[in-house]
Amino acid sequence: MKTGPAIADILKREGVEYLFAYPVNHLIEACAAIDIRPIIVRQERIGLHMADAMSRLTKGRKMGVFCMQSGPGSENAYGGVAQAYGESIPLLVIPQGYPRRIAHIPPNFNSTRAMAHVAKHCEPVTSGKEVANIMRRAFSLLRNGRGSPVIVELPADVYAEEAPDPLPYEPVVVTKYGPDPAAVKQAAQVLMAARRPVIYAGQGVHWAEAYAELKELAELLAIPVCTSLEGKSGFDETHPLALGSGGRAYPKAVRSFLDRSDVILGVGCSFTETNFGISMPQGKTVIHATLDPAHLNKDVKIKHGLVGDAKLTLAALVAACKAAGATKRDASAVAAEIKQIESEWLKEWLPKLKSGDAPLNPYRVLWDLQHTVDIANTIITHDAGSPRDQLSPFWKTRAPHTYIGWGKTTQLGYGLGLAMGAKLACPDKLCINVWGDAAIGFTGMDFETAVRERIPILSILLNNFSMAIELHIMQVSTEKYRSTDISGDYAAMARAFGGYGERVTKPEDIVPAIQRGIEQTRKGVPALLEFITSKEVSISVPK
Known about the structure:
Structural class: alpha/beta
Radius of gyration: 24 Å
């Protein structure tokens, strides 16, 4: 067996069903030969975004894998690898490399070296005889510990080398580890004694599938729960103890409860300081439960650290609280306070959420979208900028991983690939990406990929013909040179690609258009609904 087919065989054994790719990489043919379906994209970054969603939605059981050519393909792919690294997403990247004799000679792009600081591990295939060991290391790192990309570079001259036959490879062992029992006991005592505790849940809750344990702890001690943007949908946002999620924009209850808390339990989160996440107040007692000990005291000063899988950690906290005598507390007072704050906040925003203006207010579009789809059977993701900030505070998730949140790094156009990857991973779900006219400029060509590869997603485009959130910082360049103006007829573009495209300009047409778009996806046709909106720049940042 040659090295290339051996790698394909290993991918098959590890449960990989799709190879997201852009030619030329000879692994594409080897995978197709054994029924791993290649998904060919229009640009490398989108393929990585699709692989990203595949890993997220299957919790890594069907690992997202992307391959590309050496040189320009690997260079173009860098941004997608960096995005996955920022979001702690495990995905396997297999760039073709230059032949070994010139792999380290400038100006050749060496993925092993160049991508090392945005990956958990980078390694070239140095010999066909070593392929099983190299791939075993890769999958072990992908499936254990905190997620991050792993790079296995395949030099062009290694592809056809002989690999061991039969191939000595078995799927890797997946392990979990839990926190120190003494630390758990101490943290439980702090939580039980707290006057106004708050739980801040990150995407580690998703990866550990710790939904039931999070709910049990919250209900046991009547603790309100907010999530990071990445953790959104990890806790039912219609639950009486739900505060919502914290990104650049957030519901008022999130800020109110965090600021007035005495104890904050961060679970499955990194507490990374970012402009696109909720900031943590100073002077609180912080319990940090994280999979990665490198996150402890990284950005937030903590009093207690619990290192381990979120499911194991939360289960241990529940058990420790019960062992210390905790019984289910009455949550009615906390729930009433949350409801009151939320009602007051929503009242302030209803004029925008139900606006009858034309051009359309984007908040009205997203409000109508939320009240038209079956939220529990929908997977939605935002894009960078206004779509993220206008969607995340108001969209109430009800079921796990029905919202793909992101924001440690904010590359425009990320949402399209996430929606396509989500649809492949969860074909029975309605998969939606919400983007703006700036984001579609980056990755809009790959709507054709959705058509060609028969991936029936629903794209909601908010088009205000402007880089609206930059208007206040680019006043001179806008007035003199119209530098923030952008244009396009994107519904026509979608139709030209063979999908369904519709432009909407009137408030009364929003819901019927959404219904028509959904119906097209049920027929297997990707749909793009282009809503012509105002240059809305207000976001929810309550004090």
